[in-house]
Amino acid sequence: MRAAGYYRPLTADARSEESALRAIERYCRDGSHTLAHVVGPGDPPLREDDQYAGLVSYLESLGRGEALVVIPGPRHLASTLDDLVDRLTELDRVGGEVRCADPDLPDPLQNALESLPFAGRSPGQNRRVRESLLSKAARGEVLGRTPYGYVAEIDGTFRVEPGEAGLVRRLFDLYAGEAPPEISGGPENPKDDGPTGGPGLRRIAGVFNAEGLRTRSGRPWTPVTLSGMLRNRVYTGSYLRYGMRIAGNHERIVPRDVFNRAQTVMASRSPVRRRRALTPYLLSGLARCWSCGRGMHGQERRRSWTRADGSTATRAYRYYACPSRSAGIADEGTGEGEHPVWRAADLDRAAVEAIRSEPVERLRASFRPPEDDSPGDDQRAAEQRFLEAVREVASGRGGVADLATPLEELRASRAMSRPAGAAFTFDAAFRSLQTAHEIELHIAIASLVDRVIVHTDRVEPVFRTGQT
Ligand SMILES: [Zn+2]
To answer: How close is the Cα of 450 to the center of ligand 1, in Å?
Structure first.
């Protein structure tokens, strides 16, 4: 398929540029890709941002056409893992699928886990990733293989393999479950469940194995293998993956509505997505239960419902809940549990209003600029979630687009834990109280109050004493 090369001068040695270009050419030749364009540093060399912008506009000029972007290695695109993910998600949006010319590790995420630092940790600490990939290769699950369910014809097109296709259909039918009945209602009146789906992947793998069914390499089925199949768009008759041209007109094995339903079910069950939070919680680390004193946890609930036309819609609801509530937020509105649960927006508003209603002089006396710039617990947790999400995608579960949210969360948490230090004044904090910008607001609140006591029906800010 069509490919664009991209490389940067990483050393002053002109020969390194030449070898970068040769690696790109070799990769394209070996994979029978047409190297249509190369974006290099130019002479005199472009600024890195400008060179990268040139790559993006080239891809955009192709319309919705997809192209491989071949780089010698991840360092040519970014110097840290999170910056790489940033670029991979952007290139993915404009139709570019990035491959590394390294024949052992063509997947840029797998390669970057080995070669790029992240959050102050050296890439060597990710070595175990490579080991798991090598054992994966040994099992025959090599990137770019003909997908299970098809055989490749001599011209590279896919033909359905009836025996394997039968298992693929059963997998989707079992996992996606029944189509939910049509219901009325919309965003204001969401139905709780959406498609509930059938048995989980562990159960389905157990069923297949009990029947003596095996993978192509003769191994028992595992939840990981099955989830990779559930995400593979090839079964709907289109798509490309791993730089392999898949004929647009190969026969589909799974109807589109069943495939889509399986994606919805998977999203509702995936631990990565269940944990996601688009932005950190404003009162994170500040809100405490009035009754037991524990920190209130920010939680997100996703609710899906089916529209009249059969499509599925999802909306996220954010809450703070005292962790002492046995059922978390599930029993909201029932009973009179003494441990509070609040809609996040309501609690944020109540807290900001309570602080704003204090006399300015009281606030000024409470002000203490945040001085700590070592990564806080929230930031470390966001880093860990990001790394786990990268590992999931690198091992074949989901796509680059799934990393946009963990990346956003990581950036937001970093911004929050890096207030302007000495430059942060009471006036800045006071101004922030009037704005709606979440991150500034969090810093402002943290500079004025020690904690916010949360009752079931009201909040009570505890102001700082003002003395350090
Ligand atoms: Zn409590």
So the answer is: 18
How many angstroms is it from 320 CA to the middle of ligand 1? 11
With left for phi above 0 and alpha for psi between -120 and 50, is residue 467 left, alpha or beta?
A: beta
pTM value is 0.48
What does the pLDDT look like over 403-458, one tens digit per residue? Answer: 887 887 787 777 666 554 546 788 878 887 876 566 678 878 888 898 999 999 99
The domain total for the chain is 3
Evaluate whether residue 281 is within a structural domain. no
Same domain, 155 and 114: no
**Which domain, by its residues, includes 297?**
287-373+419-463
d(CA 327, CA 330): 6
In degrees and rounded to multiples of 5, residue 449 shows phi and psi of -120, 150
* Residue 143 reports pLDDT greater than 60: no
State the helix-helix crossing angle for 344-356 and 438-448, rounded to 10 degrees. 50
Within-domain flag for 387: no
Query: Which of 107, 138, 169 delimits the end of a domain?
Result: 138
Q: Which has the closest alpha carbon to 307: 189, 133, 219, 218?
A: 189
- Same-domain check for residues 116 and 167: no
Q: What is the distance in A from the centroid of ligand 1 to the CA of 16? A: 61
CA 330 / ligand 1 centre spacing (Å): 15
In a domain, 337, yes or no: yes
C-alpha–C-alpha distance, residues 383 and 406, integer Å: 9
The span from the CA of 176 to the CA of 198, in Å, is 6
Alpha carbon distance 219, 97 (integer Å):
30
Report the separation in Å between the CA atom of 448 and the middle of ligand 1, taken as the mean of its atom positions. Answer: 23
